[in-house]
Amino acid sequence: LYGLFVGLACQPATNIFISSWFIKNRDQMLSFVGTFANCGLALSGFIFSALAVRIESTVAVLIILAVFGVIGIIMSLLLRMPEKLGEKPLGYDEVPEATDNAVASDGFMLKEARKTSEFYVFALALLVTGMGVMIFSYGVLFASNKGYSESLSAMVSSFSFVGSAVGAILLGRLISKTNAKTFIHAVFILALVSVAVLFMWVKSDMPSAVVMIAILVGGIGNAGTNMEAPMLIPRLFGTKDFASFVPLYMAFLTIGIGAAAFILPTMATVSGNWISAMILSFACL
Questions:
Q1: For 43-47, 266-270, 274-278, which range has the lowest pLDDT when averaged over its residues?
Q2: How far is the C-alpha of 208 from the C-alpha of 153, rounded, in Å?
Q3: Secondary structure of the chain in the HEC alphabet?
Q4: Per-residue pLDDT, 111
Q5: Distance from C-alpha of 136 to C-alpha of 213, rounded to nearest angstrom
Q6: Of 101, 116, 185, 214, which has the fewest beta carbons less than 10 angstroms from its beta carbon?
């Protein structure tokens, strides 16, 4: 159920919802939303870290799930598309060519896009990216293996989401001020640097501060990989069928993540360490 929620609501549906509200500055708004979402994830990690020191960890998890779950349900019930409120998307008046269907005014339909090679290359790129970035999800496990307490392991996770929050803002501004090529280069350089440092951490001990910085940098890169589909789809295919493209491409990214979730732990079990899994992630990135 959690996977369905994340796969259907938290990623593609949120991007589509925000894109429906904004014509002008769509990139920046998508990045701002990503930042706030990751701030929430980081905050939950910090809260758990504080609670786990004082009460049993299972109770702490249940408290967080209950509080954040209720807030999430209430907020989802309050969401409305602009047309349901009788409003035009923000920035509508500033776009001369705007029509009543301004948010989907130009570009390919999904059926047309499937006839191009770019359609499949981008899908493959997201699939492989998903396999590469899954390694960041094992930061808590690495920390536990290194003897970190539950509280400190939660802090490792929170640093990743803090990085994602910062990264969403920075990378959103980067792509709006430069171009998609610069955005892609920045995303993968950050991710590769982080995996390289984590690789050294897995092989031998490193100071906690260095590990936290690596996790932070990895979070920034990971934010960019999650932003790839909504940021690049308008540049590759236009916005005519945005609501169909985003869920499809996010599915390719998620399939890659899901495949790696099986492959990487299996490699670690067979080899007795995470070195080969780290190398596979680095190669995929």
A1: 43-47
A2: 11
A3: CHHHHHHHHHHHHHHHHHHHHECCCHHHHHHHHHHHHHHHHHHHHHHHHHHHHHCCHHHHHHHHHHHHHHHHHHHHHHCCCHHHHCCCCECHHHCCCCCCCHHHCCECCHHHHCCCHHHHHHHHHHHHHHHHHHHHHHHHHHHHHCCCCHHHHHHHHHHHHHHHHHHHHHHHHHHHHCCHHHHHHHHHHHHHHHHHHHHHHHHCCCCHHHHHHHHHHHHHHHHHHHHHHHHHHHHHHECCCHHHHHHHHHHHHHHHHHHHHHHHHHHHHHHCCCHHHHHHHHHHC
A4: 92
A5: 13
A6: 101
Residue 57 has pLDDT above 90, yes or no: no
143 near 156, Cβ under 8 Å?
yes
d(CA 58, CA 248): 36
Cβ proximity of 159 and 214 under 8 Å? no
What does the pLDDT look like over 215-238, one tens digit per residue? 899 989 998 998 898 889 988 998
Distance CA 92, CA 160 (A): 36
* Whole-number pLDDT of residue 104: 47
Please give the Cα distance from 270 to 32 (Å, whole number).
Answer: 41
Predicted model pTM = 0.77
At which residue do the structure tokens 């349900």 appear?
73
> What's the rounded Cα separation, in Å, for the pair 48 and 62?
10
Tell me what the pLDDT averaged over the chain comes to: 84
Q: Which two tokens stand for residue 183?
A: 């955005």
In single-letter form, the type of residue at position 55 comes to I
* Beta bridge partner(s), residue 238: 107
Angstrom distances, CA of residue 86 to CA of 20, 90, 93, 240: 13, 12, 15, 21
Tens of pLDDT along 122-167?
999 999 999 999 888 887 777 777 777 777 777 777 788 888 888 9
